[in-house]
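Write out the 3D structure for:
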Amino acid sequence: MDIDASTDKDSAVVQYASLEIGGRFVNPFAGWRDKTLLDFVWWLATRKSGNGLSSDELELERNLPLAKPYFELLDTLTGDQHPRRLRQTQSHATVDEYVEYPAITDLNKGNTITATWFGQSTCFVQLEGLNILTDPIFKQRTVFSWLGPERLRPTPCQLADLPHPDIVLVSHNHFDHLDIDVVRDLGNTVTWYVPLGLRDWFVRRGVYKVVEMDWWQECEHVVEDRSFKIISTPTQHWSGRNGFDSNCSLWSSFLVKGANLSVFHCGDTGYCPAFSEVGRKYGPVSLAILPIGSYEPRWYMCHQHINPEDAVLIHRDLGARNSIGVHWGTFMMSDEHYMAPPRDLLQACVKHGLEDSEFIAPKLGKTMLYRAK
C-alpha cells in the first residue's frame, strides 16, 4: 500500500488542512467552539431525562426491530481471499426482508455495494468485493460490561458471524466508535485505517497493521487483483478516551473508491464547509454513511454532532446518490427522543426535495443493496 499526500494545492486543501498546536489537534473551522467544563455542567443540570424511552420492551422491539443480515449475499460477494464462515447463527434470512432483491446469481461483485448497520456508526460494507468494517463496537455498553450507556437493542449478530473484513475504518477514538474487544479479536488480520496520532494506541496493544492518515491523504489498498483508493477527509469533531488524551489524535472521515463505485464513512461531525470541498474533489459518491443522532440540545451539540437536516446538506454536498443514517437508536448520549432522528430525517428529505429511497434510516441488521447504474 502506498500513501500520498494530496498534491492539489487548491485553497480548500490548504484552508482545511489538519491543525496541531502544542501537541493537540484543533478544528480549523470558523464555526467550531470548544466546550468548557461550565458548558458541560450546565448541560447536565438542565438536560432532559428519559429520551422518551418506555420501560415496555415490546415497544422498543416495535420501534427498533431487528433484521437478520443477508448472510448468503454477504458470503457470495466476499472475495476469494477469505474462507466462508461456519456461523452458529441461523444463516438463511427471513424471506420477507429480501424478497424484493434480485437473485444473488444475477449480481456482479464489481458493481455492487452492500451496507449492514449494527448500531451507532458500525457498518459492514462491501464495495466491489472489498469487505469494510466501520467504527466497530459490538459490546452491550460503550466502555466496559458494567460502565457506559447501554444499548437500546441487542446487536443483530456478532462480529464472528460476518465475513472477515479486509479493512477497518476508524473515524476517531471515542469508546462508542472504537471497541477494544474488536481490536483484540481482529488484531493484525485486517488493515486498520486511522487518523493521525492513533497508531501508537494500537501498537501498545500489539496491533501493527495500522495505516495512519492525515486529512486529504490518499492510500492505495490492493485486494487480489483489485485496487481501491482510501482517502482521509476532514470532519469537525474531537477525540479522547480519558481526561488526559483529549485531541492528542485527529478525527477524520474516509472515502473509499473502487473502479466503479465509492463509499463515504463520516463518523461524528458538526456541519462544516469541508464537505462541499470533498464533493467537489471526489464526488459524486455512490453511498454515504452519515450520522443523524445525538444532536440535542443544539446549543451544546451543534459543533460536534450534525442533526438530520445537516446530514441532508452533507448528502447534497457530497453529490451522494444514496445515503443511510446511522448513529441513532443505539446508545442514548443526548436529549432528543430516541425515535426523533428518523422522523426528523424524513422531514428534512421532504423539505429539500429528496426522493423517498435516496436517504433512509435503515433497520438494524438489514443488508442494504446498491448497484451501479
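The mean pLDDT is 92.
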